[in-house]
Write the structure tokens for this entry.
Amino acid sequence: MLNDDDEQTTFLLYAPERTPHAWGLDLAHLGDTLRGSFHDVSYEVRQDDVHGGAPYLWFWAVDRHGTGFDGTALVQGRDCIMLSSTTAGEAAGFVTWLRDSYLPAPDLIRYTSEDAIVEGIESDWKLPAASGEDDVAEELRHHLHVVSGA
């Protein structure tokens, strides 16, 4: 799944624009669910000026393969999770878990990347509702390939 040419970026996962709180995201519940689903987890609900004073969940989780995820979850505007400093191959494990084990329906993930934002691309990318972790990794790689213009 991890591709040698994967570069680290930040992926933003969020609810559809038409239904911004379709995930029903509860920050404390997400932290507890991460703790029950991943090998090693640390999380804290925080509030500071970085996120406009709105509460957010900072988390760090390690899956059974030893892949670490450093993330932030927000409910201001729309339900959103940001995975920092990760590759497409690494992010796929978390994204698949989110879609298949946490969200109320598998078709609720839209995503983008820091790379797309830097390029001024505001497209709303939709994650397939049914695909395996390897397919999700390829979808994320394809996204990065498209936004880089390569």
